[in-house]
Amino acid sequence: MVRINVKFSAMIKEATNTDEETIEIDGEKVGELLAALVQRYGVQFRKRIIDEATGKPRRFINIFVNGRDIRNLQGLDTRLTEGDEVRLIPTVAGGIVLWTYRLRGLR
What we know:
There is one protein chain. The protein is of the alpha+beta class. It has four helices and five strands. Helix 2 packs across helix 3 (about 45-50). It has a single domain (about 1-105), classed as Beta-grasp domain (Ubiquitin-like (UB roll), Roll), CATH 3.10.20.30.
């Protein structure tokens, strides 16, 4: 088990009702952390984070481990260690993302 400090921002906080959480996961990779978060926070969290067609994080969701973008590391296979900080941050582009979510009834 690994304890990870996760920070949520913007529209993601609407699904978690918190901006920060320390969570214990059985695995040690970012993908396993996301699976644990989906299980914990449910369908609204999943809709905001995961692309249903690919099963991977939506392209506008930025995931950072200790300040480093996982796209520049090993992606979902990026290893996590005790006490790491993971931030989930949606890209902001003139409010279009939030507007799209509201239009689709995801909010």
